[in-house]
Amino acid sequence: NAGVTQTPKFRVLKTGQSMTLLCAQDMNHEYMYWYRQDPGMGLRLIHYSVGEGTTAKGEVPDGYNVSRLKKQNFLLGLESAAPSQTSVYFCASSYPRDRRSGANVLTFGAGSRLTVL
Amino acid sequence: QKEVEQDPGPLSVPEGAIVSLNCTYSNSAFQYFMWYRQYSRKGPELLMYTYSSGNKEDGRFTAQVDKSSKYISLFIRDSQPSDSATYLCAIPRETGFQKLVFGTGTRLLVSP
Asked: Is A28 on the interface with B (CB under 8 A)?
């Protein structure tokens, strides 16, 4: 049981290049999320999905696109990378409600470190 | 005012100390509260959650909520070097689809 797997773990891009981050989960979770984590800013939600074929904007969606063609995968795309997108990106997944607590308990991946020069 | 505020630290303590980590929040409608722990170069993982006001204990960890003051705390008893991590409070912003609002995290260093 791998949980949430992110690829790649590290990437360096030049300004204007494009790339896709892949997230895969094997827990049959309905919900999936992409966050970015920056010093002093905490975790900020970029986009999320409440089911296969659905996506929605989070707090900081500009410059990113996402797709959820399969329930287990959630892709984050940068069409034209900018230095402001240098960050650590985390994918997470969850059930709508945790069966025991009723809360929205997220399982995170290990992160993808992106540097845009 | 940020929805959730947390002192970034670092907080340095000797092994065995009692640690107090805190968050303040602005929205009085928040109903339950979570603490995530994040080791260096890893993703956050859920440590504890608690509803409404009061305390919840799990081993060496106690989560406390004071809704009247909009203040949540995480206490760690008999702290260990393995507790060295960043601790993030997280609160759902709304009902229905519960978008979590995370604090910036407090970095804790426990020295042997």
From this structure: no
d(CA B110, CA B112): 7
Q: What are phi and psi of A49, to 5 degrees?
A: -140, 135
Report residue A11 as tokens. 């990437």
* CA pair distance A107, B44, nearest whole angstrom: 8
Which residue from A105, A88, A86, A87 is spatially nearest to A96, judged by alpha carbons? A105
- For A43-94, the pLDDT digits (tens) are 999 999 999 999 999 999 999 999 999 999 999 999 999 999 999 999 999 9
Of B6, B43, B49, the CB nearest to A111: B43
Q: Which helix (H) or strand (E) holds B100?
A: strand B100-102
C-beta of residue A94 within 8 angstroms of C-beta of residue A4: no
**pLDDT tier, A115 (very low <50, low <70, confident <90, very high otherwise):** very high
Between CA B98 and CA A55 the distance in angstroms is 15
- In chain B, residues with a C-beta closer than 8 Å to the C-beta of A111 are 41-43
Pair type for strands B4-6 and A107-108: unpaired
Rounded distance between C-alpha atoms, residue B24 and residue B72, angstroms = 6
Q: Where are the alpha helices (DSSP H) in B14-112?
A: none
Quote the distance between the C-alpha of residue B44 and its chain's center: 12
